[in-house]
Hints:
By secondary structure, this protein is an alpha/beta fold. It is built from nine helices and nine strands. The termini are far apart.
Amino acid sequence: xxxxxxxxxxxxxxxxxxxxxxxxxxxxxxxxxxxxxxxxxxxxxxxxxxxxxxxxxxxxxxxxxxxxxxxxxxxxxxxxxxxxxxxxxxxxxxxxxxxxxxxxxxxxxxxxxxxxxxxxxxxxxxxxxxxxxxxxxxxxxxxxxxxxxxxxxxxxxxxxxxxxxxxxxxxxxxxxxxxxxxxxxxxxxxxxxxxxxxxxxxxxxxxxxxxxxxxxxxxxxxxxxxxxxxxxxxxxxxxxxxxxxxxxxxxxxxxxxxxxxxxxxxxxxxxxx
Length: 273
């Protein structure tokens, strides 16, 4: 029994030592803490969402947003947001942003407009308490492996946007990407916006490479710059305009991504691997 009592004491001594001496330990500790804490927050948030709305409702995103916003401080992250005025747009619209890691959720919740939810991969619904609270928040799940299913969901989403006056957040790269640039955009978000005839508002996250390097197992404190770009109108566009709309959005976001990422690198100096 005496030995068992010593284990927590040893952990309290060892963990701070490892946090100060091992970047690999910090990486895995922060990753584990992030996932575990988000699951705990979801466990607390689920009954609150049910009590507030009685079940699945986009208004539950207000609760989720409120509960998640403090997590950035626990991970040593800080957001610098510019272009807030571009989100002050009435009615439904589509938000598109680049996608680097699960940490994007923190930036999303930092600026998430009212009556806005996201489109996410279907597998997320099976992620325990996090999957359930995502469902309660009205998140739209798509099967990326079946194009026909994804198109059907997008068509339904366009109708829902107009009927319920909601906004949708989409990651047009379609997958996480940390190669220091943007991946080519998939067309789903642009078909959605054109079909609903609603504006697109691009949001750009700066590169995480100044604090988060997955291959090198580094996860330090850092700054994330979020730049909200002016809306792109789609009124009068048809499916024939989707490719040019996608290309225009990509070019604008890539230029902003390189600009804000370079500004952080210049202010912090080169990242040491």
